[in-house]
Amino acid sequence: MPTPLPDFSSSIKLKYVKLGYQYLINNFLTLILIPLMATILLEIIRLGPDVLIELWQSLNLDLVQIICIIFLSVFILTVYFMSSPRPIYLVDYACYKPPPGCRVPSSSFIEHTRLFSKLNPKLDEKSIQFLERMLERSGLGEETSLPPHVRYMPPKSSMEVGRDEAQTVIFSAIDLLFAKTNIKPKDIDILVVNCSLFSPTPSLSAMVVNKYKMRSNIRSFNLSGMGCSAGLLSVDLAQDLLQVHPNSYALVVSTEILSPHWYAGNQRSMLLPNCLFRSGGAAVLLSNRRAEAWRAKYRLLHVVRTHKGADDRAYRCVLEEEDPDGNVGIALQKDLMVIAGDALKSNITTIGPLVLPASEQLLFLINLIARKLINPKLKPYIPDFKQAFEHFCIHAGGRAVIDELEKNLQLSPEHVEASRMALHRFGNTSSSSLWYELSYIEAKGRMKRGDRVWQIGFGSGFKCNSAVWKCNRTIPATTDGPWADCIERYPVHIPDVIKL
Source organism's superkingdom (predicted)? Predict the structure, then answer.
């Protein structure tokens, strides 16, 4: 047999060639400007001070001209600094941690469903078996939590229990945040609360203002019906407000209230959210005060929003509606992942030029030209986003979402570890899931100064939103937060199927 050729794709020499290419392209201007500036400096030194003085005198500038030049320079610098965006800092955040009494192991969930089926004959054995199969493949662990009213027999579903759950989750997260930051409720200038399904009157934001006796001139907003990506939408809204209101604090609260919207019917597309969604919430403190830069954890670099609602198929892929028996639920269509992939593609197209190094952008451009002009069947080049980010927080909407992004973005298991572990420990906590994932990275002591974080959220409508943060300071492994009592047990191996 002839000697086989070496595997050039895994060659160490090829690896160093690629690293050299990346360094050369990403620092192209620096590598040109440094020798040029050094040459100019050496030439100035060679000429000597006498020649420089003669050159200055030859300009024949009088006092008025010098003052005008200085004034113009100061004016240009002032306009530049005033027109540049204000830096937005994430001072700190806190996540709601359900008490141990709210934990619902999978076996208890199925047992409760079987008991409920005796009160609701339309919930047949096939539907229960479907729920069991979904739980076995969901990636959820045995410590996820549901609100107490859902576990009553029959489950309670009313405005009263919804308000009770909202007060428990939202107030707990805000209390933790105020304790961590030593910020008083009267200091808050902007309040944004997002909850997709539960939208009472007065609003949840009004409930927060009433509880904490906030100022009468607070700018308060309540977002509903915007799905699991509403957390990043709230951050974007707070960012826009902080750009026009200097020296301000913004409080962003993200949650999903489950009690009044627990589906009690028999439609499989509506039963799936019962398997995935769990209790959770987060409170985030943002500020544009430069005095907060020293203690803030992160600085917001970019928020990119993609909305596919103009397409009817995308608009209806996550839809709240009634089943034939009149039970209200959230229907998840089979083509959800295809639509999510299309939305992600559009979002990446926008965010890529903002974050990718020049080396990746050049390779992408060359590949695009080659496919247009030479061979349309040439495989598209997927930019290496690992060159732009150290950490990834992918919305823990379900195991399939994480698997698909890991494959399409060519990420390693470590890059999606935070998302998988957050889904395993807390389930799909909707718009707050990204903050449980960020807390996991911090609890592991992996967040270093200068690290960049990419948060990706998906939501009904259909939307895909991204936020990019840069770590301001090295964050030591925390002993508090939602992972305090279990971080040493993670990561855990999650089998493809966990038999109940």
Answer: Eukaryota
- Report the C-alpha gap between 79 and 76 in whole angstroms: 5
Residue 244: burial class (beta carbons within 10 Å; 0-12, 13-18, 19+)? exposed
- Note whether 317 and 333 are within 8 A (CB): yes
b/e per residue 157-190 (b: at least 16 CB within 10 A)? beeebbbbbbebbbbbbbebbbebbebebebbbb
Which residues have C-beta within 8 Å of that of residue 357, sequence separation ≥ 6? 22, 25, 26, 387, 388
- For residues 232 and 458, give the distance between their C-alpha atoms in angstroms, rounded to a whole number: 10
Locate 172 and state its tokens.
């707990």
From the list 149, 261, 307, 415, the catalytic residue is 307
| 415 included as an active-site residue | no
Strand 219-223 to 190-194 pairing: parallel
Neighbours of 245 (CB within 10 A): 15
Query: Is residue 395 flagged as an active site residue?
Result: yes
Is 428 one of the annotated active-site residues of the chain? yes
Active-site residue among 261, 391, 465, 471? 391
Q: In whole angstroms, what separates CA 430 from the centre of its chain?
A: 11
pTM, full prediction: 0.87
CA gap 93, 104 in Å, rounded: 26
Judge whether 149 counts as a catalytic residue.
no
